[in-house]
Amino acid sequence: MNISKTLGEKGSFWLPVLACLLTAVVFFPCLSNGFTNWDDPVYLLNNPQIRSLSLNNLQSFFSSYFVGSYIPLTMTAFAVQYHLWGLDPFFFHLVNYILHILNVLLVFCLFLSLSREPFPAFLTAVLWGIHPLRVESVAWVIELKDVLSIFFFLSASNIWVRAVERTRAVHLQVLVLFLLALFSKGQTVTFPIVALLLNYLKGEKLTKKTCLEVSHLFLISLVFGIIGYYGQNLQLDEDYSIGFLLHLKQFLSLISFYLGMIFYPINLCAFYPPSDDFIDYSGFLILLTLSPIIIMYWKNLRSQQNDLPDKHSNDHSDELSVIITEKFTEKLSPNRVTFFSFSFFFFNILFFLRIVLVGEAIAADRFTYVASIGISFLVASIVTHFFELSGSFKVKALSFCAITVIILLLSFLSWERCQVWSDSISLWSDTINKSNPKHYVPYLSRATAYFNAGKLDKVEPDLIKATSFAPDFFGVYLNIGTLKMAQEKLDEAKDAFQKALKLKPSDNSALRSLGQIFLSKKEYKTAEKYLTLACRMYPMVSDNFLIRAMFFYQTNEFEKAFSDIQTADNLFPDAAQVLILRGKIYKKLGKSDLSETDFIRAQQILKEQSQGLKAKPE
To answer: How far is CA 219 from CA 65, 225, 388, in A?
Structure first.
């Protein structure tokens, strides 16, 4: 029984609707989540760049890196969202939520075009869309990078596949969408390879014409690859280089790890601690277990296709050509499906296998956002094939029940995982419980979350843990100093920042914070030394000039204070703290009208921020 024929033409309409509705239900908890303290402050909450849609600001997005990444379109999208609804987390989550649902629809359309059958396309879209590995990309607001870039990536793929003849207009559409994807996130440099794989799945031969069609796409990928590589190298504070044998071991382990997570998505967490001893062969074992099923699928379809008339026969009549074409388009070749699926997975996960750069985390759920589409298609093709081969009604019913149970189980796991991302405490507690990490990041992040939530009694144990795991990393002492400073334990904060400076003598935050501490202790000479050094070394950081302006204000040097506060305002326009201090300085300088203007504007900004930061802002 052919499921797609049984469903009829209506299946091509109702199945994608069902896939989108199921995805919408599964990820619905994300809409009630707030921000977290994992990069959300850097990208959104404390980022002055997104607070203006000025031409200069937009130009800066396209001419510079942000946190080591070249993502100008994503940064522009963040600025637009901030302009529309401030820092209300609901709308940021809503954008990710809608884009992911649209991506599910695009996956369906792509594989409907390739397989000509709605059911395997539906199953591919559902297995990919509701999988727990998708949660990180959807529930983490800054991963707009993922869902936005893949929206353009899949849109370009659909146009490429659907084009009967790749005219100049088709190439232009694909090129524009490819560039939009690259401007959103660099991982989409794989599109030219994916385009060739899609051609292969359709049965198109690799010709000189095809190579010319994708040559300019490969050139663009190379350029953006170099841009991305350079940015990531700038971002690294430490030397993460490792030996060849360790690279090879981690390369194989990570392929196995991601495959294992796709088939057995248990114990997912936000942070997988790096380890030189990282070994995971679970994915290979799962593939070995499933290999008889894949071989049976391959042999069964091959035997069916062997019954076709020989396309190399001497009889080249139109009738024979039509028969062959119809038969081959009814079922995709099993060797092509298998090769396509694993190649799609491999090439889209390749850049996340620590070949070039090695950062803090060894792996991440979000890295599978594109790659797992290939595995989902293979599983959907096999499931559909065996379902159709089943002879009895009971076997078909059992097969249908098994597919339903798998979908419901994946839906449940994703629903639960969405709620883990509700706030920082939940996120990092889950990470610590799941991975049992001997790493400072989860404990330090949870300590900060506890402090922000006012649970001060729980801060110290996590700080002790973080310090024990990274006694020689400046970042730990930097965060400890920040927390101690907020607790008004100035001497402990001073000691922590001084330890951070010993490990990294040029750190801006440590210099500025020490200046602020000595200012609070009224040790003005020492305070001025640290603040002036921070301003000199980091002239583009608004907070440096803001704190030094406070220093000059307290020492009654109002002209110097005004000069610094103007610099701070130029670097970070419309910051409430800057406007309040400038208002006070104006008052001291006898400019009461200007002082009142700044105070009124500061009140407006604080009101807007308080309205935007409802729901769970942390």
So the answer is: 21, 10, 43
Tell me how far apart the alpha carbons of residues 172 and 221 are, in angstroms, rounded to a whole number.
Answer: 16
CB 37 within 8 A of CB 452: yes
Backbone angles phi, psi at 599, to 5 degrees: -65, -40
Residue range 517-559, pLDDT digits in tens: 998 888 989 999 999 999 999 888 888 899 999 999 999 999 9
Q: What is the pLDDT of residues 396-407, one digit of tens each?
A: 777 778 888 999
For residue 26, the SS3 value is: helix
Q: Are 157 and 192 in contact (CB under 8 A)?
A: no
Q: Can you say how many angstroms the Cα of residue 298 is from the centroid of all Cα atoms in its chain?
A: 35
Q: Quick check: 260 and 375 in contact, CB under 8 A?
A: no
Q: How many residues does the chain have?
A: 618
CA distance 107 to 259: 20
Please name the residue ranges forming H helices in 521-557: 524-537, 542-554
- Please report the sign of the dihedral spanned by the C-alpha atoms of residue 422, residue 423, residue 428, residue 430: negative
Ranges of the chain whose pLDDT falls below 50? 239-240, 307-330, 357-359, 613-618
Q: How far, in Å, CA of 540 to CA of 538, rounded?
A: 6
DSSP assignment of 365-420? GGGGTTTHHHHHHHHHHHHHHHHHH--SHHHHHHHHHHHHHHHHHHHHHHHHHHHH
- 533, 535, 559: which is closest to 546 by C-alpha? 535
Phi-psi region of 407 (alpha: psi -120 to 50; beta: other; left: phi over 0): alpha
Q: What is the pTM of this model?
A: 0.82
541, 507 Cβ separation under 8 angstroms? no
**Contacts of 154 by beta carbon, 8 Å cutoff, 6+ apart:** 103, 106, 107, 110
Nearest to 44 by CA among 136, 146, 141, 148: 141
